[in-house]
Amino acid sequence: MAAEREPPPLGDARQPDLEELEDGEDLFTSTVSTLESSPSSPEPASLPAEDISTNSNGPKPAEIILEDDREDLFAEATEEVSLDSPEREPILSPEPTPAITPVTPTTLVAPRMESKSIAAPVIFDRSREEIEEEANGDVFDIEINVSDPEKVGDGMNAYMAYRVTTKTALPMFNKNEFSVKRRFSDFLGLHSKLATKYMHVGYIVPPAPEKSIVGMTKVKVGKEDSSSTEFVEKRRAALERYLQRTVKHPTLLQDPDLRQFLESSELPRAVNTQALSGAGILRMVNKAADAVNKMTIKMNESDAWFEEKQQQFENLDQQLRKLHASVEALVCHRKELSANTAAFAKSAAMLGNSEDHTALSRALSQLAEVEEKIDQLHQEQAFADFYMFSELLGDYIRLIAAVKGVFDHRMKCWQKWQDAQVTLQKKREAEAKLQLANKPDKLQQAKDEIKEEIEEWETKVQQGERDFEQISKTIRKEVGRFERERVRDFKTVIVKYLESLVQTQQQLIKYWEAFLPEAKAIA
Amino acid sequence: MMLQRCLDDGPDFLSEEDRGLRAINVDLQTDAALQVDISDALSERDKVKFTVHTKSSLPNFKQNEFSVVRQHEEFIWLHDSFVENEDYAGYIIPPAPPRPDFDASREKLQKLGEGEGSMTKEEFTKMKQELEAEYLAIFKKTVAMHEVFLCRVAAHPILRKDLNFHVFLEYNQDLSVRGKNKKEKLEDFFKNMVKSADGVIVSGVKDVDDFFEHERTFLVEYHNRVKDASAKSDKMTRSHKNVADDYNRIGSSLYTLGTQDSTEIFQLYCHIPLFYFSQQKIEARVSADEDLKLSDLLKYYLRESQAAKDLLYRRSRSLVDYENANKALDKARAKNKDVLQAETTQQLCCQKFEKISESAKQELIDFKTRRVAAFRKNLVELAELELKHAKVTGIYFCFHFRQLLFHRIIEVGLEGTL
User: Fold this and answer.
1) Using 50, 70 and 90 to split pLDDT, how confident is the model at A327?
2) Where does the record place the PX domain (chain B) (predicted)?
3) What's the pLDDT score for residue A293?
4) Domain locations in chain B?
5) pTM of the prediction?
6) Per-chain mean pLDDT for chain B
7) Which end of chain A has fewer CB within 10 Å, C or N?
8) A320 has a chain B CB within 8 A of its CB
C-alpha cells in the first residue's frame, strides 16, 4: 500500500526522489504539480515576515505562503515525530499549543521563520519530501482500535464503554501501547474541544458519529436482539474511524486534549455534549444565528479558487446524499433477498420431502441446501461491502458539512476584518473632524484618545487581514488533504468490495457445480 | 394504447429458448398426426390475439395445415367444455392458461411517461427500455402458457379427438364466446364452494384401493407445498429484481459523481459504475431466469396438481354415488319396488366408477412421469444457467480489476489474488 512508505532517512538530499514520486503517481500528479507550479517561489524559506502581503486575498502570495506554512507545520510535526538532531532542539522547545489563543498559528510561524532561515535549505529539502510522504500516506506511526463494547450500569443511566487501544512509536506519547475506557459522550466532548480550537482557523476537524436516541435507548433498556447488537457494532466502527481520521491530521495529532483522551485513564465527563444541557441549547441558538448571518454576509470573493471549491462541495454533497440513499436501499433489499431466499430454501426442502420420487426428492433437497448457502453468501456480501460503503458515504456527508463550516468561518473572518476596516475608517473620520474643530481644551485629550483608538483599530485591521490570509491558506491546504484522503478512502473500500465480489463468485460457481450432477441424476 | 407486434423475427419468433419455454413444463412428444403451436401473437389494448397454427394428417380436418386467431376467452371456453364433459371425468384435464395480465407493466410504462420531464434523457431511455423488456417477457410467457395448454390437449389420446377442440382449431370465424358476465361468475363461485364442501365430505370416505389412497394423501400434501414454494419463489425473484434496480441507480449516481469530479477520482468513479451496470445486468438476468425456470415450473405444477386432485374428487364422487346406488338397489329389492330402475342406476354408476378408476390410474402415473421429467429438465437448466452467470460475472470482475490496475488506481499488491 502506498501509505506504508518509510520516511526517508535523515541527511539525504532527496530532491530527485520528489520527481520520482510525481511521475510514479498519476493520482497525485495534479495535486503535487499545483504545488510545484507556484511561480515565483525560489527560496520561500528566506521570506521572513513578509508572508503577510499587503493586498487582500490575492492568490499568488497565498500560494507561496502555502508552501511555506506547509513546510512549517509539517516541519513542526516531523520534528516532533522523527528523530532528534542537535540543530533542531532549540526549535523544538516551544510546544505548539494553538489552543492558547485563537490566532496563534501566525504568531508561532513568525518566530520560527527567523530561526529557520539559518538552517533553512536542509530542513526545507527534507521536510518538503517528508511533506510529500505525508501527502501520500500520512504516515504517522500510530494505530487506534476501538473494541470491546461493554454495557456499564443499568436502566436509563446505563451506557456503553468502549476500549480505545493505541499502538504507537511516536515519542510524544509516554508508552508504546496503551488503552483506556471511554464512553460515547467522551468522544463527543473531544470533538467539541477540537472543533472549538481549530475550526475557526480553517482546519477541517473530522466530525464525530451522530447521536441516536432510539438506538441507545434500546441498548439501555437491555433489548438483546440483533438490531441492538448491530447498532453497537456500527457505532463501534464509526468511533474507530473517527479516531483514525482525527489522528491522521498532523495538526490535531499534536493537540494535548487528543493526547489526554487517548492516554489518561480518567477523563472529566463531557456534560456539555448532552442535547438538553445548557450548552446544548446554546449550541442550537448559535447555529440558528449562524444560519441567519450566512444569509446576510455578502462576501466579495476575489479568489476564484474558493468560489469554485464551494460550488464543488455543494455538488458533491448533493450527489453523495443521493448515492447514500441508493446504497442504503440496496443494503435493505439485500437483506430482504436474503430472507426470501432462506424462506424459499425451507419451502423447497419441504417440497422435496413430500415428493415421492426418490431421485427428484433428493435433488430438491439439494436445491434447498444450495439456496441456503447462497443466502449466507448474500448476507455476508451485504454486510461486508455495502454496509462499509454506506457507512463511508455517511462519514463523508458529515465531513463535507465540516468543510462547509470551515468555509463559513472564513467568511466570518472576512466580515470581521471588513468591520474592523469600517470602524477604523470611522475613527479616522472622527479624528479629521476633531482636527477641524476649534475647542482647544477638550481637543488635546480627545485627539489623544482618538489617536489611541486609531492605533488600536489599525492593529485590528492588520490582524484581521492576517487572520483572513491565514485561514484562507489553511483551508487550501486542508482541502487538498481532504481530497487526497477521500480518494484513498474510496479506493480502499472499492478494493475490498472487489475482493469479496471475486470470492463470492468463486463460491457460487462451486455450489452450482456441486448441484448440477444431482439434477442430472434424476431418472 | 399499446400496439405491439411480437413477431419481428418471423418464424423465429419462438427461438430455441422460447421453444424451451413451451416444453418447459411438459415433456411432450409431438407427433405428425397432430401438431399445434402458436405462431404469432398480437397485443392490443385489452386483449391478446393468438394465431393458432395446426398441422395435421388426420382425416377430420379439411386441410393439412391451417391457422386461426383466438383470444384468451376462447381457450377458457374450451377448457371448461372439457371439465363439464362427463366422458372426460376420468382424465386429468390440462389446466387452463392464466389470463394475460399486462396491467402492472402498463401502469409502470404510463407512470414513466408521466414522469418523463423529471429525469434526464439517458435515465428515461434506459428505464423505458427496461420496462419494454419486462413487457416483452410477460408477453412471451403468456404465449407460452397458452401454447402448452393446446399441446397437452393435442398430445392426449382421448382429448385430441374432442369435437370442440377441432372446432377451436379449425373454425376461422369468431367463436362468439363471451367472457362470463357477473351472474355467471357468481354462479361459478357458488359451484366451487359446493364442490369443495362436497370434496371434504367425499374425501372422508376411505378408498378400498391402496394406490388411490396413497395418491390422494400425496397429492393433497404436494399441492400445498408446491403452492408455498411457488409463492416463496416469486418473492425471491422480486427481491432479485429490486436489487438489480438499486444497482442501476447506484451506477448512474456514481457516473454523475465521476463526471463532476476531479481527474483521479473521476477515473475511480467511472470504473465502478461499469461494475454496477454489468452486475445489474447479470442480477437481472439471473432473476429473470430464476423466474422462468423455478417459479413457472412450480406454478404450472400447482395447477396440474389441482387438476389431478379434481380427478380424484370426481372418482371419489362416483364411488360414493356407486355405493349409494348399491344401497338404493338393496332397499328397492327389499321393498320390491322400482327394482329395475334401481338396477339400471346401479349399473350406470358402476360403469362410470370403473371407467374413471381405470383411466385415472393411468393418468396419475403419467402425471408423475411428466412431473419428474419436467423438474429434471428445469433443475438441470437452472443449474447450468446459474453456473454460466457466475462464470460470466467472474470474468466481468476480472476484466474490471484489470482495467483498474491499468489505471493504477488500485494497489499493485492485489494482482496476486486474480
Assistant:
1) confident
2) 28-175
3) 67
4) 23-104+144-181, 212-417
5) 0.68
6) 79
7) C
8) yes
Mutate to test the interface with B, among A505, A507, A513 (most CBs of B within 10 A): A505
Q: Which chain B residues are within 8 Å of A500, Cβ to Cβ?
A: none
User: What is the CATH superfamily name and number for domain B212-417?
Assistant: Arfaptin homology (AH) domain/BAR domain (1.20.1270.60)
Grid coordinates 489526554 are at which residue? Answer: A260
Q: Are A177 and A226 in contact (CB under 8 A)?
A: no
B229 contacts: CB under 8 Å, gap ≥ 6: A344, A347, A348, A350, A351, B298
d(CA B410, CA B33) in angstroms, rounded, equals: 65
Q: Which residues of B touch A491 (CB under 8 A)?
A: 268, 409-410
CA–CA distance, B135 with B141 (Å, rounded to integer): 10
Mutate to test the interface with A, among B372, B381, B408, B412 (most CBs of A within 10 A): B372
Sort A449 into a burial class: Cβ within 10 Å, 0-12 / 13-18 / 19+: middle
**How many Cβ atoms sit within 10 Å of the Cβ of residue B211?**
13
The half-sphere exposure of A197 on its side-chain side, counting CA atoms within 13 A, is 21
A:222-251 residues touching chain B, CB 8 A cutoff: none
ipTM for the assembly: 0.80
- pLDDT tens, residue by residue, A466-520: 988 988 888 998 888 888 888 888 777 777 777 777 778 888 888 989 898 888 8
Among A340, A366, A375, A388, pick the best mutation site for testing chain B contact (most B Cβ within 10 A): A340
Domain B23-104+144-181 sits in CATH at 3.30.1520.10
Q: Give B282→chain A minimum CA distance, Å.
A: 12
A191, three cell numbers:
470533538
Contacts of A30 in chain B (CB under 8 A): 262-264
Judge contact between B34 and B58, C-beta under 8 A. yes
**Backbone conformation region of residue B338, classed left if phi is above 0, alpha if psi is from -120 to 50, else beta:** left
| Alpha carbon distances (Å) from B320 to A299, B201, B204, B323, B342 | 96, 10, 11, 5, 15
The three grid cell numbers given for residue A87, joined into one nine-digit string: 540543530
pLDDT digits (tens, 9 = 90+) for A117-141: 333 333 333 344 444 444 444 567 7
Cβ distance of B242 and A483 shorter than 8 Å: no
Q: Name beta bridge partners: B50.
A: B41, B70
Q: Which of A337, A363, A486 sits opposite B239 (nearest CB)?
A: A337
Q: Touching check for B365 and chain A: CB below 8 Å?
A: no
> Nearest-CA distance from B119 to chain A in Å?
14
Quick one: which H or E segment has residue B56? Answer: strand B47-56
Q: Taking each helix axis as running N to C, give the angle between helix A388-436 and helix A440-520, from 0 to 180 degrees, rounded to the nearest 10.
A: 170
